[in-house]
Amino acid sequence: MQGRHLVSGLALALVLLPAQAVEGDAAAAKAKISMCIGCHGIDGYRTSFPEVYSVPKLGGQHPEYLVRALQAYKAGERSHPTMQGIAAGLSEQDMADLAAYYGAAR
Ligand code: HEC
User: Fold this and answer.
1) Is 45 left (phi over 0), alpha (psi -120 to 50) or beta?
2) Nearest C-alpha to atom 16 of ligand 1 is from which residue?
């Protein structure tokens, strides 16, 4: 079952990544991705707008990497005006949920 899979995955993540305090909830992210899909697309598909400069595909990336990337934008360690603006409005829980969602997408 998907539920058990998720639980064992989280347990593994807790063993491997003790620094990540907030658990992501992919289902909760469904209400939050509306502000991402315009650029990143749905379920990891790249947007087809050629004028949007190299928007990375998020689907299938490691959730911890995605959280770190969002934290880095928020902290100003990684600079990109749009993503810094987006990340500034995200809580740790938002980031974890979004990372869980996109990390499970293909
Ligand atoms: C206006 C367009 C736009 C929107 C809206 C947007 N992004 Fe981005 N995002 C980008 C671009 C462009 C980059 C690449 C920036 C760079 O080069 O650092 C990026 C980079 C990222 C990265 C780093 C990916 C990597 O491979 O390193 C993450 C994670 C990310 N976005 C998550 C999100 C999430 C989550 C949302 C919604 C809450 C969101 N983005 C909304 C355009 C957008």
Assistant:
1) beta
2) 80
